Amino acid sequence: MTKPIRTAASPPSTESARGSVRIDGVSCGFDATTVLRGLDLTIDPGEFLTLLGPSGSGKTTLLRVIAGLIEPRAGRVVIDGADVTKLPPQKRDLGFVFQNYALFPHLTVRQNIEYPLKVRKIPTARRQELIAEMLDIVGLTGMDKRYPSQLSGGQQQRVALARSLVHRPKVLLLDEPLGALDRRLRQELGRELRRIQRETGTTAIYVTHDQEEAFVLSDRIGIMRDGLLTQLGAPIELYQRPSDLFVAGFLGDVN
Ligand code: ADP
């Protein structure tokens, strides 16, 4: 295995190289249906990996298996060398932003962001530090007393992102987090998301149906088909050398 190249420009937080994820032969399904069919995937610390593929190919299911919301029938999920397959979500050191994982409407921005810290019993003083830092990173300083209904869609997603990262998880799982926003805002927030992910050195696994977004944001893209990865590579590789007609056709569909 080649050693990762570290340059002076690398953010210090990636030096500790936390947040590797290994999916080993994961199969799962619902009742009689099989959704994931012995899927293997390794994600490097600090990497931004996007899953693309037709609707129903298993992208969300894979994220949910990594999150611990679905238990696989076979296979393992390994984070930084530790087998977490049997651990509940809150013990996995993950953050997630799902399209339908809404903010708590009766809590302020600050209280929403504070929630994961309270769950983890972080002392008050440290909580305030972490929240201030996160508000700054997502550009919402001064808006902490507002309620979600007093924010735009884009601001709400920034809060959701802040809430998912405030406890400094190793891995961030994102399922169509920008899906409900208009194109311009998607692009803007996509770039911001990438900046924040780099700054915090968090490994990100991103599900989207927006190919352009995937090509702009990702270190690597995995194309899913029928519960398996049919190709995995850097955006340029997929674009120039699709592994088969399915990938070529799928990528050709929308561009
Ligand atoms: P994708 O994210 O690629 O669109 P999903 O992972 O959401 O695909 O779904 C993969 C397959 O699993 C689909 O056929 C879907 O209908 C099925 N599925 C997903 N969740 C459930 C569930 N809770 N119960 C039954 N079937 C499900």
From TrEMBL:
Keywords: ATP-binding, Nucleotide-binding, Transport. Signal peptide: none annotated. It comes from the Bacteria. Residues 21-251 form the ABC transporter domain. GO terms for molecular function: ATP binding. This is ABC transporter ATP-binding protein. It comes from Dactylosporangium fulvum. The lineage of its organism: Bacteria, Bacillati, Actinomycetota, Actinomycetes, Micromonosporales. The chain holds residues 1 to 255 of 398 of the full protein.
